[in-house]
Amino acid sequence: MSTVVALRRLARPMPPKLLLDIEGESFIPAPEIETWARAAFIDEDAALVNEDHAHLRRADIGFLWTNVPNSRQGRAIIGTAERGQPQGAMGKWAKARAVAQVRGWFGAVPDFIVTIDALYAAECGDAEFCALIEHELSHCAQEYDQYGAPKFTREGRPVWTMRGHDVEEFVGVVRRYGADASGVRAMVDAANRGPEIAAARIAHLCGTCGRQAA
Ligand SMILES: [Zn+2]
Predict the structure, then answer these.
(1) Pick from 61, 68, 188, 203: CA 20 to 30 A from residue 115's CA?
(2) Distance from the CA of 33 to the center of ligand 1, in angstroms?
(3) Ligand 1 centre and the CA of 170: distance in Å?
(4) What's the burial of 12, exposed, middle or buried (CB within 10 Å: 0-12/13-18/19+)?
(5) How far is the CA of 12 from the centre of ligand 1 (A)?
């Protein structure tokens, strides 16, 4: 099946209109994005299956829509990926509060949280949306052990980690969608320069990468 046909058959989720219309900053859990991402990219029989995401068949991924504008150094951030468990130094109550919020959204603390800009998603094309979701999924990785094999806990659960841009998975997203779609907004100039530059420019658009670059 061609990519175009597969995309048409798999209607992508759109952000709730409520979120686009309301005043005030908000987040809305989006289980429909997870369902769609599995059917589109992750499952063995996914329409546009990408084996780079195979480990995510065992991951819980919580998706959020937000209408909160985000930017870094003048560039819009349209998506982020992070660990589900709140990270970083926090007071005991601040951490418990953050965990309670995550539980309220997802019912449990997921392995990863992916946040998507609802206003961008409402206007971008299908290929751009696919590239954005696959880009964020590519940050959601399984740790390797000292021999380069996927790492598991003693209970047999994958050990999760966040992955930066310097890996093949991100080049793969550019290869799948072309530099235009993968770079989302600011990619046009890089389109003829090859995947390395393309990957670097994506880094400016994703809040997760930006954090690592800073
Ligand atoms: Zn990124």
Answers:
(1) 188
(2) 18
(3) 8
(4) middle
(5) 21
C-alpha of residue 182 to centroid of ligand 1, in Å: 11
Neighbours of 80 (CB within 10 A): 21
Residues with CB under 5 A from ligand 1 (ion): 206, 208-209
Contact (Cβ atoms closer than 8 angstroms) between residue 82 and residue 113: yes
In single-letter form, the type of residue at position 171 comes to V
**H and E: helices and strands count for the chain:** 9, 8
Measure 167 CA to ligand 1 centroid, in angstroms.
11
Give the Å distance between the CA of 154 and the centre of ligand 1. 30
CA of 164 to the centre of ligand 1 (A): 7
Rounded to the nearest angstrom, the distance between the alpha carbon of 153 and the centre of ligand 1 is 26
Helical residues (DSSP H) of 24-167, grouped into ranges: 31-37, 92-106, 118-123, 126-139
> Which helix (H) or strand (E) element contains residue 63?
strand 61-66
Tens digit of pLDDT at every position of the chain (214 positions): 556 566 566 789 999 999 998 888 999 999 999 999 999 999 999 989 999 999 999 999 999 999 999 887 777 889 999 999 998 889 999 999 999 999 999 999 999 999 999 999 999 888 889 989 999 999 999 999 889 899 999 999 999 999 887 667 777 787 888 766 766 444 333 333 344 434 434 444 567 765 433 2
Cα separations (Å) of 174 from 112, 128, 177, 191? 22, 11, 5, 10
